[in-house]
Amino acid sequence: MIDEVKEITPEMLEGLIETNSNRYEIIDVREDEEVEQGMIEGAQHIPLQQIPESINKFNKETEYVIVCRSGRRSHNACLYLQEHGYKVRNLVGGMLEWNGEVIFD
């Protein structure tokens, strides 16, 4: 079992987004009502409890940044995805630390 999760800071992710780096795909694992308050531009919303049934949406060649409100749920999602062979990074501090652009649907 893998307990170690790679991390990315909000500043690092914001820099990648600003330079149009397609290095990572962003997955937001928060609940619907949390996402209604805004998401990181370009993020895909898959609530945490839907990750197992949505695993076929992930590509083992792609690197993912997993986001939640504070970093705890995204850490759990990272552990799950890593155990299934996916490359992931947890956004340190989650949306509470994110100062970049937020979109509203």
UniProtKB/TrEMBL annotation:
It comes from the Bacteria. SUPFAM superfamilies: Rhodanese/Cell cycle control phosphatase (SSF52821). The keyword DNA-binding does not apply. Keywords: Transferase. Signal peptide: none annotated. Pfam families: Rhodanese. The keyword GTP-binding does not apply. GO terms for molecular function: transferase activity. Residues 20-104 form the Rhodanese domain. This is Rhodanese-related sulfurtransferase. It comes from Salirhabdus euzebyi.
